[in-house]
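User: My collaborator sent over this chain with a note saying "see what the structure looks like." That's all I know about it. Can you take a look?
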Amino acid sequence: MHVAQLIERVQHVGRLLVAAQPRELAVGNIVRRVLRVIRDEAEENRNGQGVASSDAGGGDRPDTSDLARSEGIGNLSTDAPTEQRLQPPAQSSYVAGTNTPTTTTSLFSLLSHPSSRVPSPSETPGIYSRVRQTSSSIHAKLTLQDAQHLRAEVIEGIQEIVDELNQADDQMAGYALDYIHSNETILTHTPSTTLQKFLVKAAAKRKFTVIYAETSSDQHPHQVSSASMIRSTSESDYEASSEQFQKALTAASVTVVVVPFSAIFALMSRVDKVLLGTHAVVADGGLVAAAGAKAITKAAKMHRTPVVVLSGIYNLSPVYPFDTHALIEYGDPSQISTYGDVAVIGKMHLENPQFDFVPPDLVDLYITNLFVLPASSLKL
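Assistant: Without extra context I'll predict from the sequence alone. Here is the result:
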């Protein structure tokens, strides 16, 4: 079996998963990480075989005097012209398994002689040796022993990804005491487990108040989007209900004030910090969050209130939001207005968005399970 066949199978399954729910950007992120694990392990396996074969071959070294003459090191003598004395020697490298030196043009030579011809890949195989090595490691046929070793390494790498997903919320909660201070007023509208653990961790040593803004999804808890239906039911991915979220904070001695979503602009002047969860973070630094996030961040910017977003690394997507409307998922509009309102239904187009796209200029800080950085720096 070839490594390329394994990669092709994983890519095929990944395409099926992404096609099933294209707005779940985290699915594509995890598939890419699994593919990276396979490629890295295949390359390491190939490198191990190359080192073993070179050691078995004796590893003869070329004569350094011949190398010096071939590279023109003698041009540094005082008899040579000034340009030749100032020009450094070209760098040399050796291709694994051969004794033939390869010459690469240095940056100094390119700047000193702009008209010099750039060597082709066939003339400078040392530059492209890593690319060829990676390609050969992917297309090389594996023996039974190598296949078993690669299988064990790939399974271990996937298990590391799973462990990272399970520990992401706890790792983000480790930053809570650095960004939540005593007597602060924090506004949020996302009853996620990530926010819950973050606030509970800070409540262990801080006294603060949380203002929870109720949205339409809180008034209709039975409304479930298609995206949340296919999510894992593990603790790290489970979205807590509004009532459970409030009970957990109250049990941790946090003062929780529940307000209607329409009051967020009036209360924003008393808020010290806005804390949001996220569904996905795209390449330009913007995020896809629960419906109502954009209104909250706009009100926060109007009142100069900092906006902090919690997001695991697995939510960072290389997808660029050329069409922001394509990232928004819409729920059942009958949850907002029933079909009994015949006069209204016949005269308007009713939409019930489940998510909002928040541009990067409305976010101040991202807290992930590995690092903390401003939104202006989070551009993939």
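A starting point for your reply to your collaborator: The chain has a mean pLDDT of 75.
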